[in-house]
Fold:
Amino acid sequence: MHKFKFWTATAVVIANMIGTGVFTSLGYQLADIRAPFVLLMLWVVGGLAALCGAMSYAELGAALPRSGGEYNFLGKIYHPAAGFVSGWMSALIGFAAPTALAAITFGTYFVSVLPEASAGPWVVKVLAITLVIIMTLVHASTHRNSGRTQVAFTALKIILICIFCAAALILVPEPQDISIIPVKGNTGLMFSGAFAVSLIYVSYAYTGWNAATYLSGEVENPQRILPRVLFVGTALVMLLYVALNYMFLRVAPMDAMVGKLEIGYIAAEYALGTTGARFIGVVLALLLVSTVSAMIIAGPRVLQVLGEDFTIFRPLAKTNKDGIPVSAIWFQSLLTLVFIVTSSFESILVFSGMLLALNSFAAVLGVFILRWRQPDLPRPYRVLLYPVTPLIFLALTGFTLLYVGISRPVEALFALGVIVSGLAVYLFARFQNNKN
Structure:
């Protein structure tokens, strides 16, 4: 049976991370911060947190090599109920809703080059549905087809981002006079509330660095490969994010981007003109193909292990002859299609980042707990600079969670509702298991 190789797993990490976030966050950040050095440091600090998280996950993934990500980690470190709730959150919120959003954004960007008469909302939804179905058919076939498709579209994503950055910087007729060297007042800004708020948007853009741990059981030699996958994938994304935001600041005036979502379009318009900006729509659409693809690979592995462990979810554990969890892939894709057709997922996405951050916080905290409880457990990889590395992640993520909880109490209550519902389903699933 074929398994995913290093570059496929790395492509899943990169593609899961680079979605729409990096092309929309700068407009919000510019509302309170106008210092180029501080703006770029946001992406460096966010990348540092993601790297610290990735290295911590590498230790957990090498010590506990089973697919399922946090479902596997939290279930073994804390209690099966914690793992189940984590899987429940991932199944309901973590993958289907963001996949739907990425697919709809793909359709929105793609129709930007079509004549207005043929670019109605229904066209966007048809394109989104078509993309999800095509990617589902590919990833429900074989590891070879799935891996080659993911690597190809992720490579295309990286190449297009590099070309976009280079073309915009070279062709812009009137580049902005910005300095990336720190000046007086920058240090104060980096410890301000505005920096903390902006870091929330950045942390959402980095979400997905843990994607490879969802398919650990299908990766060749996971104990050796997984740490490299997580580190290389996250580090590459951090470099691309810093390069993109430098290009945005160099190409377009800050005043033109404040409060705007379409940062990529605005930068392209200043650098390449109106015609060039329209074609950037197609480029951004192509970038999102690999995002949709990666989520269709990673998400169903959580559903698969839920099916392996709980009788009522048993159908989701079904695999084809190549070991692909076909039922779980189609189930997640059907849920994604429901979100696309009804467009009812926007409110869910407001607090999905909070739930995913909570998952990651609990997993990284588990590095300390696992070392304390099972000091003799074989650890093919140990997190670099322990305990500093996981502590950096916990401090930055904990601060973000606290701030979101205080400033968005309604979303925090919804998140609590998802957790409670997961516990209720866990108790019922355990009851069914014991009955059988």
Observations:
- The CA atoms of residues 204 and 353 lie 6 Å apart.
- The mean pLDDT is 83.
- The chain has one domain: 6-435.
- The first helix runs from residue 6 to 17.
